[in-house]
């Protein structure tokens, strides 16, 4: 990383409230890659934490969060998905999609219906295959489903004739076939306790509320200690109260266990609460990953007081603005978008920092001069 990385060109945003800064990171193969920032660069950067920037603890956490992005635990490389079109040709849901995540990161994908979010998740799960490209998880190319990757669906997909314990134990047995009943039961119970279902072990799905069923789904997914937890709008069918409680549980568990998670959501607040990185996808067909928003809120954020954080509205407005106006017109607004160097958006106090992965992009990155960036 060069010394001048965080002192690059500065553009005025059209918004009266935000100013942008374009920096560059070390050239990398695809989004999220690049050498971690050194402490001297952190000091020069707008601090992402509302607490005093001089505090050693906050600075260390920033270094840590950026260092994580150099590790490519999940690497989606140039995937495309095409279906036969009505005229005999092909319709591409997306083409040349690149995305990477570090071990222990929580990534959320946001985009309008039909842009291909579920397709990406299914490809990651091994339930679907890309028309082109590769997905690598922990150094291995994905080929079919694996107990290394657990999926939590919006519908609970529980076995109705089995109890809570039976459903979780079934998953445990699929992974560890040689375990005896006592060991399987003890292991399943640990995860039933973890999701707060102690006491409901012997109930069947028909006796459970929607929230409880989803807890079983989460316990079942976690019980096989997957490398990645994949979630496709897991809470969207739940009432607000249950949704909030389960968001808390998932966040607590992921932080406690260092679980890597990839989640699709339509709920901007859910993404801001849960995610380390928020992936913004444009509308399909021909959807692209337009931006990666790094969550500027501290790791010890709470769901209830999320909106009190000084950066909350800036990050929320940025995402909503993308969904409302920029996701439709992105392809024409940004004709030279490079899917391998997707802009990383960092929102700091009164500033919006865009760090482009590729140095060559810094002279032409257009996001900050677009009128629609206004908040
Ligand atoms: N079997 C299929 N044949 C043709 N088109 C499909 C098929 N499955 C999905 N699609 C299309 O792929 C696009 C992306 O679907 P999906 O990944 O489910 O989107 P999202 O999850 O973002 O709402 C949609 O436009 C959908 O119509
Ligand atoms: Mg979907």
Describe the overall structure.
The chain has 375 residues and is α/β, with parallel strands linked by helices. The protein has 2 domains: 57-148 and 227-375, P-loop containing nucleotide triphosphate hydrolases (Rossmann fold, 3-Layer(aba) Sandwich), CATH 3.40.50.300; 156-225, no CATH class. Helices cover 31% and strands 22% of the residues. The chain contains 9 helices and 14 strands. It is globular, with a radius of gyration of 21 Å. It starts with 9 loop residues before the first strand and ends in a 19-residue tail after the last strand. The structure holds adenosine-5'-diphosphate and magnesium ion.
Name the overall outline.
globular
Attached small molecules: adenosine-5'-diphosphate, magnesium ion
CATH topology of the largest domain: Rossmann fold
What is the CATH class designation of the largest domain?
A: Alpha Beta
